[in-house]
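BUG-293 | component: ligand-complex export | severity: low

The export step for zinc ion jobs runs without errors, but we want the raw record kept on the ticket for reference. Input record follows.
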Amino acid sequence: MRTPPARPGPRIDLHAHSTASDGTLTPAELVRAAAGAGLDVLAITDHDTTAGWAPALAALPRGLSLVRGAEISCIWAGVTPAVSLHLLAYLFDPDDPALAAELTRMRAGREVRAERIVDLLRADGIEVSWAEVLAGAGGGAVGRPHIAAALIRAGLVATTNEAFGPRWLGERYRIMKEDLDVFRAVELVRAAGGVPVFAHPRASRRGPTVPDELIAALAGAGLAGLEADHEDHSPAERAHVRGLAADLGLLVTGSSDFHGTHKTVRLGAFTTDPQAYERIVAESSGVTGVATG
Ligand code: AMP
Ligand code: ZN
Ligand code: FE
Ligand code: FE
């Protein structure tokens, strides 16, 4: 006898971007799209900002739970050149002075870096303007996808992915930004009552990744989990991350890292098990909690 299909559990996507950083849907459009995609839980995790939280909350559709988070731009300086990496932080206090000051500093560093990239492009005779890039970011945290969009509008590349190739933002015009030491980031997120999860730790096509020993050291320093299921991980890399998490007692997440039309991935393309989600909520002591529409 065939067993009937299991009743689907809640669908939980813990990593998505809005126009508060380099996504293309506003926070309100993002939560509506999440509900439309059949998600039960969505985390809004814009780069280095919490500016999307209030408008996402105000538009929260009935039945959708919103996890307020951010994706913090970090570096590990244990090798030269330093490796950049992303730390997801969930349910932290957005008014924690130390963490908020670092996020403000990093957003300012993003502007400096993006303007320098535009200067480099212009020095090579490439007609992109800083005013246009800044306008494209619409007041959100400026990122390379906004420069990619300007390159597309200028007809120089066809896709965001092409703009991240070695001829463009991936290498020739690549400039590091003023990111946060990853150990300090873990400490600040925990001190603000948040729960830190290492985003796409094996995403090697974006540049060098960190060794497993560093992840073990971060686990000792307060890291809660690893994002295993992500479009930038191969099946073997996902399995490796799961194994590492099991060895280190870390939780694992899966998420879309949705960016609207700046990427092709869809909301809910990867999801997180309810047990891991519940652990994140239980470990948080941020003032905010999960909001339900
Ligand atoms: P930034 O934070 O300004 O350094 O820009 C990095 C962001 O660009 C990442 O968070 C991704 O959202 C995006 N990105 C990186 N590589 C690619 C790619 N190959 N295609 C599309 N988006 C990318
Ligand atoms: Zn991004
Ligand atoms: Fe990321
Ligand atoms: Fe992301």
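Assignee comment: Attached the raw record above. The first strand starts at residue 12 and ends at 13.
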